[in-house]
UniProtKB/TrEMBL annotation:
It is found in: Mitochondrion matrix. Residues 42-279 form the Aspartate/glutamate/uridylate kinase domain. Pathway: Amino-acid biosynthesis; L-proline biosynthesis; L-glutamate 5-semialdehyde from L-glutamate: step 1/2; Amino-acid biosynthesis; L-proline biosynthesis; L-glutamate 5-semialdehyde from L-glutamate: step 2/2. Its EC number is 2.7.2.11, 1.2.1.41. Residues 312-604 form the Aldehyde dehydrogenase domain. Its main location: mitochondrion. Keywords: Amino-acid biosynthesis, ATP-binding, Kinase, Mitochondrion, Multifunctional enzyme, NADP, Nucleotide-binding, Oxidoreductase, Proline biosynthesis, Transferase. The keyword Transit peptide does not apply. It catalyses: L-glutamate 5-semialdehyde + phosphate + NADP(+) = L-glutamyl 5-phosphate + NADPH + H(+); L-glutamate + ATP = L-glutamyl 5-phosphate + ADP. InterPro entries: AceGlu_kinase-like_sf, Ald_DH/histidinol_DH, Ald_DH_C, Ald_DH_N, Aldehyde_DH_dom, Asp/Glu/Uridylate_kinase, G-glutamylP_reductase_CS, G5K_ProBA. It comes from Oncorhynchus tshawytscha (Chinook salmon). This is Delta-1-pyrroline-5-carboxylate synthase. The keyword rRNA-binding does not apply. Bifunctional enzyme that converts glutamate to glutamate 5-semialdehyde, an intermediate in the biosynthesis of proline, ornithine and arginine.
Length: 748
């Protein structure tokens, strides 16, 4: 860890702090307002609570390298007393055996005096491994209240840091008096050093640290005592919020407790130091807790002086879930009315939508950071909005028999009937990049399937997403379920959203392959529906028709090169090479300004070939493609299985037997014969729209529309039946008869 952090670091262990530095003190006196800014922290104080480093018996040490003088001395004196008692007892009884012995209560100041030398010896041994010198500084409360002593302390610490010597600071517990009651936290200039929390806060402010990390034996600050049924971790804590929380008991060791941590944190925050309280007791779980916090990840409770105007993402998710349950309970006709109203609004508010989109486009063009493919995705037009409206009306029609549809009925026994029915998945998190048309599409699908939706759009489309979300909530409000669709517009990182496994039921990423991979890696507790790459192939068989080949290849590559269903590799049967058909294909691609990369086998057939492809597993997302040669249809299948992404693959041939074998043997989500790969789309399939294309092996596969956003539940209706009724001594027997499926009648 010491080698990993290239910044100034102060680590406080019980009654101890040491400093590491390679940076300068902060330039201003303001604390950070949100977690993302913690990456800028250069001076950090890390305080380890007694419960973090002390064993359960309160005498031993959980970490051999990190504890205070009192704990060290307590263990040392306990050992000495036990040894002394055993010797005396042996002399008295004449037997060298230890009977029941009790250890008297050890006075803390004596323990500290006995433990200081051993503590420093351990620290010196630890830092010597890094060729680093250490120095000890002992302080008391008076050293911070006397201006001259405080200046001397500051000067000493700065000089030691300048010489790359690590100062290890302890409270001088051998002489320190008991803390005075009611003397703690009397303002910015006064703080009683009566526990390690107040010591950490005082040193953090005194040394102008950017961040104070207080590690305890709980995940952070809760709105009620941890362990109670309704306790929820507070992500961000603001001054004034302390009246709304209830503190639990203090930890089993130490003298601070959570209330002391909060008071010290607010004092440090007022002095310009940001604070995070987190869990440091489970190394396998929290081994990277400090670096995670510094990287701005959502760990523990972050203290901030600036309260945002809107709700937190946790509050948004809770609102979406509650409203989503009401949405699922609506009649199908009512959900259809909401979707149709949204479709009408897309047409009626066309000018406002396009004006907002123009703002986003202008900002993106001026920034110059988006490729032409992403700019195409970001752009909206009247034609796109009309197509969206048509697709939404298709979804509205399809929604009439979606939720609550009976899939199976079984008579288990007399008067005992079982049904399997469709139900919403729950709360969906859809993350999409620069594609604002995704928002009304997925909103309509979520509404039709009775799911709540949490949408996280790219900042490139912020203005467009905002107005589209407003229109969505306006449509939802006609049946009082406005909160069922939420737009996440806070600074929440995608990785942080993926940690909300108790609140989100399914994540659907829409964007680059890197975005999808990152989400699949981060979402360890939430299912992810999607594909990481769209490496689509078109195979030209030896018996392909010339006119179909040119049309399909042009459309597959050039219609929308940025789409995930665009052709990336063109496989050509060897018999096609050096024929007029192949020449026409090359001429067409050149006319369309498609950059050609040659596969290894294709390059070997040419005297002067295009640039040889670096990888046959490449998604270009632009007017580029790879051409490779195969000797047979089976070789084409093998190539696709090896280098494809199981998205969409096409064969162009007039031989029906060859086509059918290709369709049956190829293991992709979409397999086409004499059709452009661009047809792999929910709208073109008649699904109305799609939330994405899945290459997964379970649940939904291919373009995922309304059906893919539903799951099932089992409903069993009986008349006092028990499992005992069907035992050997019971009076009933199983029938398991399949019954006709009849759909429930709905009425307004």
């Amino acid at each position: 860890f010491l080698a990993a952090l290239s910044l100034t670091l102060y680590i406080i262990t019980p009654n101890c702090v040491f400093f590491l530095t390679v940076g300068l003190a902060r330039a201003n006196s303001n604390s950070f307002t949100h977690r993302g800014e913690l990456r800028k922290a250069k001076r950090i104080v890390v305080k380890l609570g007694s419960a973090v480093v002390t064993r359960g018996d309160e005498c031993g040490l959980a970490l051999v390298y990190s504890f205070g003088a009192v704990a060290f001395g307590k263990q040392r004196l306990r050992h000495e007393i036990l040894l002394s008692q055993s010797v005396r007892q042996a002399l008295h009884s004449g037997q060298n055996q230890i009977k029941d012995m009790s250890v008297p209560v050890l006075e803390a100041r004596a323990c500290a005096a006995a433990g200081q030398s051993g503590l420093m010896a351990l620290y010196e041994a630890m830092f010597t491994q890094y060729s680093t010198c250490t120095a000890q500084v002992l302080v008391t409360n008076l050293d911070f209240h006397d201006d001259q002593k405080r200046r001397n302390l500051n000067s000493t610490l700065q000089e030691l840091l300048r010489m790359n010597i690590v100062p290890i600071i302890n409270t001088n517990d051998a002489v320190v008096p008991p803390p005075e009651p009611n003397s703690d936290l009397q303002g910015v200039n006064v703080i009683s050093i009566k526990d390690n929390d107040s010591l950490a806060a005082r040193l953090a402010v005194e040394m102008k640290a950017d961040l104070l990390i207080a590690l305890s034996d709980v995940e952070g600050l809760y709105d009620s005592p941890p362990g109670t049924d309704d306790a929820k971790l507070i992500d961000i804590f603001y001054p004034g919020d302390q009246l709304s929380i209830t503190y639990g008991t203090k930890s089993r060791v130490g003298i601070g407790g959570m209330e002391a941590k909060v008071k010290a944190a607010l004092w440090a925050l007022q002095g310009g130091t940001s604070v995070v309280i987190a869990n440091g007791t489970h190394p396998k779980v929290t081994g990277h807790v400090i670096t995670d916090i510094v990287e701005g990840k959502k760990v523990g409770t972050f203290f901030s002086e600036v309260k945002p105007a809107g709700p937190t993402v946790e509050q948004q998710t809770e609102m979406a879930r509650n409203s989503g349950r009401t949405l699922a309970a609506l009649h199908p006709e009512q959900r259809g009315e909401i979707i149709c109203h949204l479709a009408n609004l897309l047409v009626e508010k066309k000018e406002e939508i396009l004006a907002a989109n123009k703002m986003d486009m202008d900002l993106a063009v001026n920034a110059g950071q988006l490729s032409s493919a992403l700019l195409n995705r970001l752009s909206l037009s009247p034609a796109k909005l009309n197509s969206l409206a048509i697709g939404l009306r298709q979804i509205a029609l399809a929604s009439q028999d979606s939720v609550g549809r009976v899939l199976r009925r079984t008579r288990v026994a007399h008067n005992l009937e079982l049904e399997q029915i469709t139900v919403p998945i729950g709360v969906l998190l859809v993350i999409f990049e620069a594609r604002p048309d995704c928002l009304p599409q997925v909103s309509a699908l979520a509404i039709a399937s009775g799911n709540a939706l949490l949408a996280k759009g790219g900042k490139e489309a912020a203005n467009t997403n905002r107005i589209l979300h407003e229109l969505t909530q306006e449509a939802l409000d006609i049946h009082w379920v406005k909160e069922a669709v939420q737009l996440v517009s806070t600074r929440e990182e995608v990785e942080d959203l993926c940690r909300l496994d108790e609140m989100i039921d399914l994540i659907i990423p829409r964007g680059s392959s890197q975005l999808v991979k990152n989400i699949q890696s981060a979402a360890k507790g939430i299912p992810v529906l999607g594909h990481s790459e769209g490496i689509c192939h078109v195979y030209i068989d030896s018996e392909a028709a010339i006119d179909k080949v040119i049309k399909i290849v042009r459309d597959s590559k050039c219609d929308y090169p940025a789409a995930c269903n665009a052709m990336e590799t063109l496989l050509v049967h060897r018999d096609i090479l050096k024929t007029p058909l192949f020449d026409q294909i090359i001429d067409m691609l050149r006319t369309e300004q498609v950059k050609i990369h040659a596969g290894p086998r294709f390059a070997s057939n040419l005297t002067f070939s295009p640039s040889e492809v670096k990888s046959l597993r490449t998604e270009y997302g632009d007017l580029e493609c790879c051409i490779e040669v195969v000797d047979s249809m089976q070789e084409a299948i093998d190539h696709i299985h090896r280098y494809g992404s199981s998205h969409t693959d096409v064969i162009v041939t007039e031989n029906e037997d060859t086509a059918e074998r290709f369709l049956q043997q190829l293991d992709s989500a979409c397999v086409f014969w004499n059709v452009s790969s661009r047809f792999a789309d929910g709208y073109r399939f008649g699904l109305g729209a799609e939330v994405g294309i899945s290459t997964a092996r379970i649940h939904a596969r291919g373009p995922v529309g309304l059906e893919g956003l539903l799951t099932t539940k089992w409903v069993l209706r009986g008349d006092g039946h028990t499992a005992a009724d069907f035992s050997e001594q019971g009076t009933m027997e199983y029938l398991h008869e399949n019954l006709p499926v009849t759909q429930p009648q709905t009425s307004n």
